[in-house]
Each structure stands twice: as C-alpha cells, then as structure tokens.
Amino acid sequence: SATARAAPPTDGIVRVYLVTGSEPGKKTAEVNALVKQFADPAFADFDVETLDGGAPKNDRAVPISERALSSVAMVPMGSGRRVVVVRDTQH
Fold it and tell me: Is 66 a residue whose pLDDT tops 70?
C-alpha cells in the first residue's frame, strides 16, 4: 500500500511510487489517491498522464522507459505536480 505526504510542488524532488499487489481494484485506489494528493484538480487533464507499460514501444518505436522519462520531465501547467502513471509494467 502506498502512503505519501504532500510536499511543496517547488521542492525539486522527483518521487517515484511503485504500487504492487494482486488486487487490481486496490492498486487503482492507491494510484487514484496519489493522483488526488499531488495533481492540481483544475489541471488534471494536462498534468496527469497514464502510459501503458504493457506496450513496450509506441507507434514510433519509442520504449516505455523513454516515454515515461519524457513525460515526467514536462513542467506541470497547474500549481500541483505532474503525475505520470505507468500501468501494467511487468519489469
């Protein structure tokens, strides 16, 4: 189970949370709680991105690891943090 405390969005620290378990519903609830805690709800359409870790490359043959790092490096549009969720990663 993931637990986190909100930190100021300007502290310069990138946080990574690994949510694992055999119950998909519980994992989804934990991820949703993290998104709610860190993302500015008014800008969630822009600052929250979900990637499919089960698709190792997109149509341009870019590996999921590069796509995730690129997404994380983007500056948030709102006052919260940019949140990138990578689902279904097996490695």
Answer: yes
Rounded distance, CA 77 to CA 40, Å? 9
Rounded to an integer, what distance in angstroms lies between the CA atom of residue 47 and that of residue 44? 5
Rounded Cα gap, residues 46 and 32, in angstroms: 16
The Cα–Cα gap between 43 and 10 comes to 17
Question: Helices (H) and strands (E) in the chain — how many of each?
Answer: 3, 2
- Give the dihedral of Cα atoms 73, 75, 77, 79; nearest 10 deg: 110
One-letter amino acid for residue 79 of the chain = S
What predicted TM-score, i.e. pTM, was given to this entire model?
Answer: 0.72
